[in-house]
Fold this sequence. Notes:
Layout: H1 3-12, H2 17-27, H3 30-60, H4 64-69, H5 81-121, E1 125-126, E2 129-132, E3 139-142, E4 148-152, H6 153-158, H7 161-177, H8 179-192, H9 197-219, H10 222-236, H11 255-263, H12 271-305
Parallel strand pairs: 2-4
Antiparallel strand pairs: 1-2, 3-4
Helix pairs in contact: 1-3, 1-12, 2-3, 2-9, 2-12, 3-5, 3-8, 3-9, 3-12, 7-9, 7-10, 8-9, 9-10, 10-11
GO molecular function: metallopeptidase activity
EC number: 3.4.24.-
Enzyme class: hydrolase
Amino acid sequence: xxxxxxxxxxxxxxxAAPALARRAGDRLAPGAALWVLTTAAVVLAGCSSAALGGFxxxxxxKLPLFAALGELVHPLRIAPDAxxxxxxxxxxxxxxxxxxxxxxxxxxxxRALRAARAAAGxxxxxxxxxxxxxPYPDAYAxxxxxxxxxxxxxxxRSLDAAEREVLFAHERAHNRGGHHWFLxxxxxxAHCHPALRPVREAVRLAAERAADEAAAAAVGDRRLAARAVxxxxxxxxxxxxxxxxxAPAAGSGPVPRRVxxxxxxxxxxxxxxxxxxxxxxxxxALSFGASATGALDVHHRVEVxxxxxxx
Length: 311
């Protein structure tokens, strides 16, 4: 298989990820789903970006200036120029769009994190709990050192004492599990390939479900946990918070699905869950294998064009 075909696979395989991610999220335990979905998203995103870079490189090496810089003494034989040139232009445009989106997202996230930590640092903390005086109900786990749970006075007024305990346990589970890293990785992956955007939402749901289960176990009452999640989400609809996207919150995500899961018996993964996870990881592994093999093929063809290797 030639390099262009090999490099095309990592651009197509992410299109299968959303359906597999939904199934994995429904069938796997939340903690396992979080790891599987995030790993697959990061690998697929990295391989698709590498494939685009491969197309750009082969297009550049077709130009006399870059061929001279690459010390090519023979024409680079990868594919007809009628294929390589348009593919290189399209890949360069896609990389530019992705890079621009990534830069904007990182800048906005850094600003939001700084603003959130500044707000949390401006009030006295009771352990890891920071209470902000605000008329808008909100609560979230703030990453960084030390970890903080940020909750507004309006959110505290919206919940009773037992529900507040669920809320605190939920946010502490986010910080304890390092869920902000998973959310950040999924957010960046979603900017590398548009097909990975639904996977980003599946990762966010898995993080919330993992914290829901931890909170339910902490208070020993799944119905209370479900009620607290529902009321926090209902109250949070009035929130005007500019919290970072990497700061998980109890009231985010598809709340009806989370409440339904809490009201049901704890999920026990079966063989179907294992098969779905294996398919998703196999998709990521195939993408990695195709991109690596394509890169090696391009490298060999460059060496041939340089006169350093035989065909």
